[in-house]
Every structure is written in structure tokens, then in C-alpha cells.
Amino acid sequence: MTAAVRPPYRVGIVGCGAISRNHLEAFAALPEAVVVAVCDVDADRARSTAERWGIEHAYGSVEELLAAGVDVVSVCTPHPTHEAVVLASAAAGAHVLCEKPIATDLAAAERMVAACDAAGVRLGVLFQRRFWPAAQRLRAAVDDGTLGRPILGHASVLLHREPEYFSSAAWRGTWASDGGGVLMTQAIHYIDLLQWLMGEAVEVHGHIGTFRHAIEVEDSATAVLKFASGAMATLSASTAASPSLGISIRITGETGATAELSEFPEGTDGRVTIWARGGAIESEQVHPADVDPNVDLAAINGQLIPHHTAQVRDFVSALSANDGTGREPAITGSDATAALRILLAVYESSRTGSPVRLNQTATQEALA
Ligand SMILES: NC(=O)c1ccc[n+]([C@@H]2O[C@H](COP(=O)([O-])OP(=O)(O)OC[C@H]3O[C@@H](n4cnc5c(N)ncnc54)[C@H](O)[C@@H]3O)[C@@H](O)[C@H]2O)c1
Fold first, then answer.
1. What pLDDT is recorded for position 366?
2. Residue 367's pLDDT is what?
3. Alpha helix positions (H), 79-224
4. Which residues are in the CoA-binding domain (predicted)?
5. I want to staple 141 with a disulfide (CB 3.0 to 4.6 A). Which of 58, 147, 197, 273 is the partner?
6. From atom 36 of ligand 1, which residue's Cα is the shortest distance away?
């Protein structure tokens, strides 16, 4: 049973750092929601955010924000803090939209999903790239048989980060406070796209390394993934590329057709840059010469606002369906847990040197 609330929803935003702007812009675009409170452990930051956006309340803790009475909480804090904020929000009966990654360990992610279920509140997790029109087109091509069931996939995530990226926020670049490197922070979006297009992953073999950045977590990773359907995919990801080549995701379906989705420069809308089907190849240039390949973080985040808005709109409309048909948001806590499970398996595989079987529902026939 899901908690029934009615629009306009009272929204609280927890964490007033870089990505909070995307949430503030997204909710501002929706008549069904109004941001009534923000909070940050840096109370001055909460206050200045509230002033800038004309928000009624600014607090220094999530407890104060929840006591003000909110229907929805957006979680925009560093990775390991997500769990405490989600658990407190669920206990207060608020629906939660949490930034990725859902958590940095599986047990925490599972506790978050279970707590929201038990409290009857919805849990959504941001993977806004699923809302690119081009990503939706690829997914439709899987579903309508143009690609058909995927058999091969590849995600190439070749990004550029300056050293200041890691020094600008104290939590970045360490196992304890970031939970991982390029996999946890950037590539998780594309791991999610792979699983959304290709289905449930059942086995992962991977490696991580740190080559260019002075950080303890990985700046580069590779992995081979096997899916319950028998499909296979490879992943390579790095924040050490200079210049960045952006992201490309290629899917070959059982029809033999292949489609490629490209994001270049990082943060811009994904485009379908290759369609190989029916004896013809349609392609579009992925890396035009007049584009600056190394985009700064504020520009990347700014370009993502329309897709954050699309996901926030979906989340809010899922709540509106509560008292009638009721529905889950497009991207649930369980979806985000599955993406986390894949990337944690890359870490484990890299540590042990062995493939990691994911505890899922694949049959031996499917894996054969
Ligand atoms: N979806 C995307 O594309 C995308 C893009 C960027 C960041 N993110 C995610 O958003 C989250 C935040 O990233 P960011 O870049 O905005 O970080 P940031 O460091 O700029 O901001 C985090 C803010 O949270 C505050 N904070 C820390 N602990 C808190 C707590 N317990 N309660 C309240 N406030 C707290 C900090 O003081 C800071 O102001 C991360 O999970 C990150 O991965 C997602």
C-alpha cells in the first residue's frame, strides 16, 4: 500500500551542491510540485540556495526538513550519505527521489528499497539518460523487433577530468567517501543503459586500474558482462582520456541490425549515430571538429537539466497515480540496485581475478 498524497506536492531538497540546481529547475517546471524546503549540513549554503530560489525554509539537517512536513524528498548528497537520508525520509512517510548511485554497497541499497516498501513510499533513482529521445528510440527498436533481442553490446566511456575535479569536493576520489571512481560516479549511467536495453546481467568479469589521477579509486575500468538472455557486452570506462571522446553504446540485435548511441561532448543529448540494418549503414559524425571535447562539470550538469526534468516529471506523475491505478516510477530503487550490483561485481572480479556470478534468475540453458 503506497502512501496517498495529492498535488501540489511539498518537496524538500537535501544537499545544495552542484546537482541540486537540476532538481530545483526540474521541480520549478512542474505545477504539481513546489519546493518548500532545502537543507545542507553547510547551513549557509542551504540559506543562500533558499534565498536564490525563493524557497520558504532552509535547514541544517534532514531531520529539521522532514519535521517541516514534506511529501517528497530529493536526495542530492554524496554517495555514502544517501542511505541515512532515504531511511529517515521513508520513516517520515515521504516519497524519495535519490541521486545515483543509490548507495555504495549492496546491503545499504537493499535496506533502502526495503524501508521504502515497508513505509509504502515510492523510491526512484536518477538515471536521467534513459529519458534521452535517442535512448527511448533504441529501446523501442529492441521491443518492436527492429533490433530484436540484443545479442552483443558495448559501452565506451572515455571521459576527461582535470585534477581539480577531485580536489574540489572533499568526498571525491576515495573509497570511503566516494565508494569508487569512474564506475561508481560516471559509468553507472551507461551500465544502467546497458541493463535497460539488454536485460538482467548474470555474470561479470572485470578489471580496474588507476593510471593518470592521484586518487585511490579507479580512473579506468574494463568489464565483460553476460546477461540472462545469453547476450554479452563489453564495457570500457575512464576519466583519464585527454581529450574526451565521450560515450558510445552499441547494440547488435538478433536481427543482425546494429545501432549506436553517442553522447559527445559529455552531457549533451545522446544521438543515434549508427543504424546498420537492411543492407544499409546510416551514420552520423560522432566527433565534429568544431566541438570542445573537454566540457567542465557545470556545463555537463547544465545540459542534463531537461532529462532530470523528464525523470522528475515521471516520478511526480507516478505519485499522482497512487490513489487510482498506482505505479512505480520509471526507474526504481531495485533498478538502481541492479546497476550497483553489476559495478560492484567489477570491483570484486578485479580483486579476485575471477568472474562473479550475480545472484539472479538465469537458467543454465540461457547461459549455455
Ligand atoms: N544524475 C547525474 O547526472 C548526476 C550528476 C552530478 C552529480 N550527481 C550525484 O548527485 C549527488 C551529489 O553530487 P554533487 O556533485 O551535487 O555534490 P556536491 O559536493 O556539489 O554537493 C553535495 C552537497 O551535499 C551536502 N551534504 C553532505 N552531506 C549531507 C547530509 N548528510 N545532509 C545534507 N546535506 C549534505 C554538502 O554540504 C554539499 O553541499 C551524488 O550522488 C552525485 O553522484 C548526479
1. 39
2. 38
3. 82-91, 106-119, 133-143, 163-167, 175-178, 182, 188-198
4. 4-96
5. 147
6. 15
Q: How is domain 132-296+341-357 classified at the CATH fold level?
A: Dihydrodipicolinate Reductase; domain 2 (3.30.360)
Where exactly are the structural domains of the chain?
A: 9-125, 132-296+341-357
Check pocket membership of 40 for ligand 1, CB cut-off 6 A: yes
Ligand 1 pocket residue status of 147, Cβ below 6 Å: no
Interior angle at CA 268, CA 301 and CA 143, nearest 5: 115
Q: Tell me the CB-side half-sphere exposure of residue 96, using CA atoms within 13 A.
A: 34
Ranges of residues in the chain whose predicted pLDDT is under 50:
1, 361-368
CA 180 – CA 257 distance, rounded (Å): 35
pLDDT at 2: 52
Q: In Å, what is the CA distance from 63 to each residue of 38, 59, 156?
A: 11, 9, 41
Centroid of ligand 1 to alpha carbon of 312 (angstroms): 17
Q: Which atom of ligand 1 has the smallest separation from the CA of 128?
A: 1
Ligand 1 lined by 191 (C-beta under 6 Å): no
Query: For 313-364, what is each residue's pLDDT tens digit?
Result: 999 999 986 555 569 999 999 999 999 999 999 999 999 999 999 975 433 3
Ligand 1 neighbour 14 (Cβ under 6 A): yes
pLDDT on residue 103: 98
With beta carbons less than 8 A apart as the criterion, state whether 103 and 334 touch. Answer: no
Q: Give the Å distance between the CA of 16 and the centre of ligand 1.
A: 7
Tell me which long-range contacts 38-43 makes (C-beta under 8 A, separation of at least 24). 38/12, 38/13, 38/14, 38/65, 39/12, 39/13, 39/14, 39/15, 39/64, 39/65, 40/14, 40/15, 40/16, 42/16
The pLDDT of residue 223: 98
Does 302 contact ligand 1 (Cβ within 6 A)?
no
pLDDT at residue 322 in the model: 53
**Cβ 84 vs Cβ 93: under 8 Å:** no
Q: Would you tell me which CATH number, out of the four given (3.40.1160.10, 3.40.605.10, 3.40.50.720, 2.30.30.240), belongs to the domain 9-125?
A: 3.40.50.720
Radius of gyration of the chain (CA): 20
In short, whether 62's Cβ falls inside 6 Å of ligand 1 is yes
